[in-house]
Amino acid sequence: MSQVFNFSAGPAMIFPEVLHKAQSELTNWLDQGVSVMEVSHRGKYFMELITQAEKDLRNIYHIPDNYRVLFLQGGARGQFAAIPMNLIGKKGKALYLNSGHWSATAAKEARNFGEIDEITIVENGDKTRITQLDFSDIAEKYDYVHYCPNETISGVEIFDIPKVGDAVLVADMSSNILSRQIDISKFGVIYAGAQKNLGPAGITLVIIRDDLIGHARKDTPSIWNYAVQRDADSMINTPPTFAWYLCSLVFKHIQSIGGLDIIAKRNTLKAQTLYNYIDSSKLYRNVVAKENRSTMNVTFITGNAELDAKFVAESTAAGLQALKGHKVLGGMRASIYNAMPLEGVEALIKFMKKFEAENS
């Protein structure tokens, strides 16, 4: 088999440099003679690791001083519950912007903990597109407004920040975290599962403004209470130490290659290269409006389910892994997160051309 490229939507590809670094010190971390997985999470060396990891992340993402960084567990789904338990307060309700599967799933979970209004902002016509982002006239009626800027299943991305006036804006950035620079100060809470751009599955990043901590409902489990986690350095129980360690290596690697400006340029080039080919093809089609096409998850179809299945089987055999679309939509999906090199996209396009020639 030729070189393998992993297009999985998550758990996803990790920078090879990070994996090689982890491999080289797996059994002897910091010359301690043991693995990072074997040391105490409250010991001197691991505490130094998490302190430096937060410092590196703050530097990369320009996180303001009045925001707390938490490394939690439970994935984004855990935060679907934690957000309303911590943030629904005096106003008694929240607004969820539905742009696809994951934003709708978040709203469904939140209804277990408070009154939720939901507005569909996606239109599924000939082209899928976002229809509105200005909610400044109603947002302040709610304790917070929640949205998902990148829907992995449909390949829809929201590049502009919703207008919510002075209301608290919450974003599930699981699939586009650290893909480009953003203005953190526009958000009350940002959360993201690690398994796409940050590291391996098992750890979840939460960036939350200080004034939003300490208002959890009384029956909030301690593991979901942001104040409890803040006061315990995100370690009220034993954390996923290896996942945290790998995230720390990812942060260092991003810094070493020039930060998010370089990452963003690479991501834009990869996505544009793949979309340009799809648009020129007579076989493949992307059904998302150009202004909302995801930089991270490129979806495409042939229009024939049997041909799609053949494409997936043959691409897998050719070393292009995990191109099968999500079961909700079918078709194909190329997830090209930060760690995917341009060479992977070029290899995919080469295969797509060959497949098109053989199946036209």
UniProtKB/TrEMBL annotation:
Q: What is its EC number?
A: 2.6.1.52
Name the source's superkingdom: Bacteria
- By its UniProt entry, which HAMAP family does this protein fall under? SerC_aminotrans_5
Q: How does it assemble?
A: Homodimer.
- The UniProt entry lists the main location of this chain as cytoplasm
Q: Which residues bind L-glutamate?
A: 42
What reactions does this protein catalyze? O-phospho-L-serine + 2-oxoglutarate = 3-phosphooxypyruvate + L-glutamate; 4-(phosphooxy)-L-threonine + 2-oxoglutarate = (R)-3-hydroxy-2-oxo-4-phosphooxybutanoate + L-glutamate
Q: Which family does it belong to?
A: Belongs to the class-V pyridoxal-phosphate-dependent aminotransferase family. SerC subfamily.
To which species is this protein native? Haemophilus haemolyticus
Pathway linked to the protein? Cofactor biosynthesis; pyridoxine 5'-phosphate biosynthesis; pyridoxine 5'-phosphate from D-erythrose 4-phosphate: step 3/5; Amino-acid biosynthesis; L-serine biosynthesis; L-serine from 3-phospho-D-glycerate: step 2/3
Function according to Swiss-Prot or TrEMBL: Catalyzes the reversible conversion of 3-phosphohydroxypyruvate to phosphoserine and of 3-hydroxy-2-oxo-4-phosphonooxybutanoate to phosphohydroxythreonine.
Q: Tell me which cofactor or cofactors this protein depends on.
A: pyridoxal 5'-phosphate
Where N6-(pyridoxal phosphate)lysine occurs along the chain?
196
Domain Aminotransferase class V, residue spans: 4-348
Xref: Pfam families: Aminotran_5 (PF00266)
UniProt-listed NCBIfam families? PRK05355.1 (NF003764), serC_1 (TIGR01364)
Localization, per the record, is:
Cytoplasm
Q: What class of enzyme is it?
A: transferase
Q: What is this protein called?
A: Phosphoserine aminotransferase
- Which lineage ranks, top first, belong to the organism behind this chain? Bacteria, Pseudomonadati, Pseudomonadota, Gammaproteobacteria, Pasteurellales
Per UniProt, the cofactor note for this protein states: Binds 1 pyridoxal phosphate per subunit.
Q: Which UniProt keywords apply?
A: Amino-acid biosynthesis, Aminotransferase, Cytoplasm, Pyridoxal phosphate, Pyridoxine biosynthesis, Serine biosynthesis, Transferase
Q: Which residues bind pyridoxal 5'-phosphate?
A: 76-77, 102, 152, 172, 195, 237-238
GO MF terms listed in the record are: O-phospho-L-serine:2-oxoglutarate aminotransferase activity
